Amino acid sequence: MSAPGRVDNVVQVLARSAGIVLEYDWRAFSAIGADIGDADLLGVPAGTPLLVREGVSCTPDGEPVLFVRRRINGERARFVLNFRPGGED
Questions:
Q1: Which of 32, 33, 51, 58 could form a disulfide with 25 if both were Cys (CB 3.0 to 4.6 A apart)?
Q2: Do residues 35 and 25 touch, judged by C-beta distance below 8 A?
């Protein structure tokens, strides 16, 4: 059995299938402690540090299409920002 390949972004797949082009409008990052619901969903103890990413994606003309709010276990979070074309992931 082989390892699974890279998983496509579900939102981008759905947008493409609907003929919608999405661009990031804005993103914000904050930190919280996992409440009981987050802890259950993420399989972590309540109070575990979580990174929260929120933002809006829009069409190229600026029409908002999607609001996103994700909670990520802080111990597993990693973000890389490439500011030069061709930078590594």
A1: 58
A2: no
Which two structure tokens, joined as six digits, stand for 33? Answer: 């402690």
How far is residue 83 from each of residues 1, 9, 21, 79, 80, measured CA to CA in Å? 38, 22, 22, 13, 10
Q: How far is CA 16 from CA 4, 6, 13, 47, 62, in A?
A: 22, 18, 5, 38, 17
One-letter amino acid at 72 equals: I
**Tokens (6 digits) for 84:** 């030069």
Which of 43, 44, 51 has its CA nearest to residue 69? 51
In angstroms, the CA 73 to CA 42 distance is: 7
Mean pLDDT of 53-73: 93
